[in-house]
Amino acid sequence: MAKGTVRYWAAAKAAAGVAEEPYEAETLAQALDVARERHSGEFARVLLRCSFLIDGDPVGTRGHETVRLAEGGTVEVLPPFAGG
């Protein structure tokens, strides 16, 4: 299991109630499952609209179960942003 940091932005941060927290997971899917267990209510609905960066690289349409996480890595959770 890799350990790293999940950072939440905008609506994801508001729904989680924290700006960041640690992860201990092998894949993005596992890290998000743990996050859903930690945060109830609106959080799961917000995640459905989010995009993700892993160590600065976009996940895009890849299946979250196929996205491996690195030791000391960072997952950025980005909800849609308005404006420009």
Automatic annotation (TrEMBL):
Domain of life the protein comes from: Bacteria
SUPFAM superfamilies linked to this entry: MoaD/ThiS
Family matches, as InterPro entries: Beta-grasp_dom_sf (IPR012675), Mopterin_synth/thiamin_S_b (IPR016155), ThiS/MoaD-like (IPR003749)
Protein name: Molybdopterin synthase sulfur carrier subunit
